[in-house]
Design a protein that fits this description.
The complex is a heterodimer.
Chain A lengths: L1 E3 L2 H7 L3 E3 L8 H11 L4 H5 L2 E4 L2 E3 L11 E4 L6
Parallel strand pairs in A: 1-5
Antiparallel strand pairs in A: 1-2, 3-4, 3-5
Chain B lengths: L1 E4 L5 H8 L6 E8 L3 E2 L2 E10 L1 H18 L4 E7 L1 E4 L3 E9 L2 H18 L2 E7 L4 E3 L5
Parallel strand pairs in B: 1-5
Antiparallel strand pairs in B: 2-7, 3-4, 4-6, 4-8, 5-7, 8-9
Helix pairs in contact in B: 2-3
Classes of the chains: A alpha+beta, B alpha+beta.
Amino acid sequence: MTVLLFARARDLIGCDRVSIACPAPATVGELRRQLIQQYPRLAGLAERSAFAVNDEFADDLMQIPSGAEVALLPPVSGG
Amino acid sequence: MMRLTREAIDYHALTEQVRRGDCGAVVLFLGTVRDLTGERVTVALDYEAYPAMAEKKMAEIEADTRQRWPVGDIALEHRLGHLDVADISVAVAVSCPHRAQAFEACRYAIDRLKELVPIWKKENWADGSTEWVHPGT
């Protein structure tokens, strides 16, 4: 599963997306744990970030549909 | 109309977009790059977005604002890229029949944007260091 990265998350990894080995079907919470396990540098930030699934905020209990676009959204600071 | 742009925001044109005969009040909010955060000096900000989701969320904020106030029209632009001190990062223009509604609707739209829309800014401090702004981290 591919996860899009933005802002500090992207800078920490040096890439705008990462591929996560996650059993399908996975929930957002499982993906968050797997992401942190594979990329420990993201730990502090990923715990405080939201996830988006297909352009919509998704809570940790949500099942991720296959083929969905998934993004890690660190706390926003627009304006 | 709600959109992201990499160009300088033309706030006069944005204001004209919402001005109309049945509205006696137009409120324009501009967010501009401030030079001080506490004691730290900012020389520039870099803004980036998750564009598809940001535009979707901005459209939802427009719909939500229209539902709560008798909005004649509303226009919002957020700039992305490298901005210098005093540059305009965001503009919101709202027209309503009366001023109280226009002030409230404009305040609501910018507050919701800051809360919901996936846009991030990176501080470029005067000492040459940079730092993404992620409130609460």
